[in-house]
Write a structure and sequence with these properties.
Strand content: 5-15%
Number of helices: 13
Largest sheet: 5 strands, mixed
Shape: globular
Strand order of the largest sheet: 1-4-5-6-9
Number of strands: 9
Helix content: 55-70%
C-alpha cells in the first residue's frame, strides 16, 4: 500500500507539474515539455490491459510526455512496468519521452538505473534507463537555500523517513519557506501534506520545534500549523478510542487475538477500517471473521 508520503507527493506533482519542472531545473535535469499537465496515468498496452504509473504529464494527444515515479524501495515489478509504459506511450504519442524516478535513497537510485535493463538467454537486450532524481539531505539544503516555496515540499520529502533532530529542523525550515505563499488555501494544503507525510517520531520532534517558533510569531503560517496539529490530535484521540472499544468488545465476547493482531488494531490509522472491525466484532464467532481478508 502506498505511504502517506508517496501519495502526498504524487498529488502535489499532479496538481502542480510546474513545481516538478522547477525541481528538475534546480537539480540539473533539464525541463518538462512545454505545457505539460497531468493526464490519466494509465498507459494502455493491449486492450483491456493497462500499466499504472504515479504521474503522467503531457500536452495534447501526441508529442512529448513524461512519467514520474516516486520510489522509496526496490520493486522487482517496476522494471517491467516502466518498459511497458514507455513502449506504449512511445507508440501512442509518436515520440520517446522521459521516465523520471524520484527517490531519497542512494541504494534505490542505483537499483532504478538498471531495473529496466534485461537480457534474453541468447543476448537480446531490452533496456530503459530512467532519469533518476535522488534527493538527499544536501540536495534538500540546496533547494531551501533558493528560498522558493515550490521547492520546499521536495526538500521535506527528502528527509521524511528520517528521525533525527537535523531532519526535523530541515522540515521546519521547509514549512517556514512555505509561509511565503500568498495563497492561503494552497499554503494550508501544503502544510497539512508536509506534516502528514513525515513519520510519527519526526512529527513529534517537529511539533516541539514549531512550538518554540510559535513563541516568536502568530501569523497565518502558525495558525495553519496549530489547526493541523489540533486536527491530528482529535483524529488520533478518536482512533485510540475506537481501537480500545474494539479490544474491549473482543475481550467481553471471549474472542482471543494474538499480539500481532492487537498491535495491528492499535496501529490502525483508518477510522473506516476500525468501524468495520467493530461492527463485525459484535456478531463474529472468532477473530478470523473480524480481521479476515473477506472483511477489512
Amino acid at each position: 500500500m502506498p505511504s502517506a508520503a508517496h501519495e502526498t507527493m504524487v498529488e502535489f506533482i499532479r496538481s502542480h507539474p510546474q513545481w516538478f519542472d522547477a525541481l528538475l531545473r534546480a537539480m540539473g535535469h533539464g525541463a518538462l515539455p512545454d505545457g505539460a499537465r497531468a493526464v490519466d496515468p494509465s498507459a494502455r498496452v493491449v486492450d483491456p490491459g493497462t500499466v499504472q504509473v504515479d504521474v503522467l504529464l503531457s500536452s495534447g494527444n501526441v508529442g512529448p510526455w513524461a512519467v514520474v515515479e516516486l520510489q522509496r524501495d526496490d520493486d522487482p515489478t517496476k522494471g517491467r512496468r516502466w518498459l511497458l509504459a514507455a513502449a506504449a506511450l512511445h507508440d501512442r504519442r509518436g515520440v520517446m519521452g522521459d521516465v523520471f524516478v524520484v527517490t531519497h535513497a542512494r541504494s534505490v537510485a542505483r537499483w532504478a538505473s538498471t531495473a529496466a535493463v534485461v537480457e534474453g538467454p541468447h543476448g537480446t537486450r531490452l533496456a530503459l534507463v530512467p532519469r533518476v532524481v535522488c534527493l538527499r539531505r544536501a540536495d534538500a539544503e540546496a533547494l531551501l537555500a533558493t528560498g522558493r516555496p515550490e521547492l520546499a515540499l521536495f526538500a521535506a520529502w527528502a528527509v521524511h523517513a528520517q528521525r533525527s533532530d537535523a531532519a526535523a529542523r530541515l522540515v521546519r525550515r521547509a514549512i517556514v519557506t512555505m509561509g511565503a505563499l500568498p495563497d492561503a488555501a494552497l499554503r494550508g494544503a501544503l502544510v497539512r501534506g508536509m506534516i502528514n507525510m513525515v513519520g510519527d517520531e519526526l512529527r513529534a520532534k517537529l511539533r516541539e520545534l514549531l512550538m518554540d517558533l510559535s513563541k516568536v510569531t502568530e501569523g497565518p503560517l502558525m495558525r495553519d500549523l496549530r489547526e493541523e496539529f489540533e486536527r491530528r490530535g482529535k483524529l488520533e484521540g478518536k482512533l485510540e478510542g475506537e481501537a480500545s472499544a474494539l479490544l474491549r468488545v473482543l475481550a467481553r465476547r471471549g474472542i482471543a487475538i494474538d499480539d500481532g493482531t492487537r498491535a495491528r488494531v492499535l496501529a490502525c490509522s483508518d477510522a473506516a477500517t476500525l468501524d468495520a472491525w467493530l461492527d463485525r466484532a459484535a456478531t463474529a464467532a472468532d477473530a478470523a471473521e473480524v480481521f479476515g481478508e473477506g472483511g477489512a
